[in-house]
Amino acid sequence: MTAGIHRFAAFELDRDGRALRLDGREIPLQPRVFDLLLYLVENRERVVSKEELLDTLWPGVIVTEGSLQRAVSLARAALQQGGLGEALRNYARRGYRFLVDEPPPATAADAQDGDALAEAECAFAAGRWRAAMAAFASADRATPLSAECLERWAAAAQCAGELAAAAPPLERAAVAYSSRSEPEAAARVTIGLARIQIESLDVAVTQGCLRRARRLLSGLPRGAQHGFLAWMSARLHLYNGDLAEAIRCAIEARDIGRELQNADIESMGLLIWGIGLQARGDTPAGMALQDEAAAAVLAGDVSPLVGGIVYCGVISSCCNSEDWRRAEQWTDSFTRWCERCHIDTFAGACLIHRAEVFAMSGRLALAHDAIARADPLIRAGAPWALGDAYRLLGDVLFARGEEDAAEQSYLHAYQHGWDPYPGYAILLHQRGRSDEAVRGLKRAATLTNWVAGERRGRYLAHACQIASLAGALDEARALLEALDRAPAMWASGAAAAQVDRARAELAWATAEQDEALRLFARAADVLRHQRAVMDAALLRLRLAEALAACGEHGAAAMELAAAEAVFESAGAGGYLSRCRALRAAVSGGGG
Fold it and tell me: Which residues does UniProt assign to DNA binding (predicted)?
């Protein structure tokens, strides 16, 4: 070292000039990344604890360990440009040390390999996920990557929405960390593997990964990986329908996240806790926790990968509970967040949720396109969502008037383990199979998985509507009583409007016409407020039918015109034909 300059390999670290140079070329570094690298270089004779680094780099500021990890990742990316990506070494449960081994004489091939890896690290640090994937793959073909590089390769794949591509590098990283006797790091990537495996419905493999992670962490002080393990365990319990255990593990993850000031762990704990409460019937409390998790993402406290997971969970719950206004607001916010983070959240299963928002807002062509783009992605990385894609496609086809194709799509949804309701029940009712429709909705409402739990209110509301329309009034009353016993599962969002419509259909069937008309109109207002454009138009069509039956042809014509405008714009030929048939009847009756 001379005049405040540290030299190692082809690098110069200029303390006074606050610059890192490689062969005379300056490599830009964020201020805290420079401070981190300088501190480790100047204390290279020892392992520096994480606590010391946090106190030194962020004096008087409360930050999470994730901030340190991101700074280390960026420093490694800069050093990798000169082939020293492994100089910042992580010592499990101890900290970091700057340690440079003298490399053998470089060859031309070595330089090319180093260029590929440097390109990968730079792309990763800049959030160019697909470019990072390609560069990591290229570098790995030349020289097998280190465990750390494999882990970053897998993270880039997940941020790009390519879950299936993340599994092979994670599997190799787990083996590498184990061979280096780094149980905490091995547990970290094993938990990441569990997340990918459950998306692929490989539940046995998921359980095996979590058992291994638990064994690797046994005896270690409670740390971040215990929090990630609690979150992933909650996710598995949620899939298995064990809501109580899912909530318990989610609260544990939340608590560990707060204890460690780790926003990633805390937000994922809040997410699963909220989904569990919503599936158990307490939608307002569940959505409040999910909103808190999503707000942490938008505030910039959460990593891109975890942010994508949180968004997907929140938007799924919004769709399941028919809270379209909240779904639209979070989608708009997260679209801007994705652009900032260069993350492809709208991929695979999340693309299906976005397609459902499109469909409900009357943009059927966009919904159909999103489903088509999602199909190959979910087949490769999240096959559990294939049934949901078929269900939504059935709804789109039904709205267009392609009833036979819609029925086939609904049947495909069921074959892939997904209940195709309420759309399939409405189709059955329209074809004169109302009893079958009600039975199917009631069965779907009794299932214990979290999706059925989140949708239970809408299932029972539609069952009540169909029972009233079919004249099964005792059945309709019993269903309405069941809804009234658990108002928390439907009191918010568009589900409340569907319950109002259920009350209206029962009132209409029992000749309480004024009450029915009042409830139909109130439900339509709620749906418009919730931005449930298609459902609001369908309710206006139903209100027009009721008004026409009461002889109020002028009012019926106004409701009908409003509904027709929506269906024409959406290309909903099936619903439009019903409007035109009623218009002909109203025109004839109105003289």
Answer: 3-100
Instruction: Return d(Cα 73, Cα 85) in angstroms, integer.
Output: 9
DSSP codes joined into one string, 200-255: TT-HHHHHHHHHHHHHHHTTSPS-HHHHHHHHHHHHHHHHHT-HHHHHHHHHHHHH
Residue type, 243: L
DSSP 8-class letter at 433:
-
Q: What is the dihedral of CA 169, 175, 176, 179, to 10 degrees?
A: 180
Domain segments of the chain: what residues? 446-529, 532-591
340's tokens: 């900032």
Model pLDDT for residues 490-538, shown as the tens digit of each residue: 887 889 999 999 999 999 999 999 999 999 999 999 999 988 999 999 9
Question: Which one is predicted more confidently, 378 or 421?
Answer: 421
Residues 6+ apart with CB under 8 A from 213: 187, 190, 191, 194, 225, 229, 232
Three-state secondary-structure class, residue 82: coil
Distances (CA, A) of 344 to 159, 262, 386: 6, 23, 19
2 DSSP 8-state letter:
B
Question: Do strands 11-14 and 5-8 pair parallel, antiparallel, or not at all (unpaired)?
Answer: antiparallel
Contact of 201 with 384, CB cutoff 8 Å: yes
- 103: phi then psi, degrees, rounded to nearest 5: -80, 155
- Looking at every residue in the chain, the average pLDDT score rounds to 88
CB 376 within 8 A of CB 548: no
Q: Between the CA of residue 169 and those of 320, 344, 422, what are the distances in Å?
A: 34, 20, 41
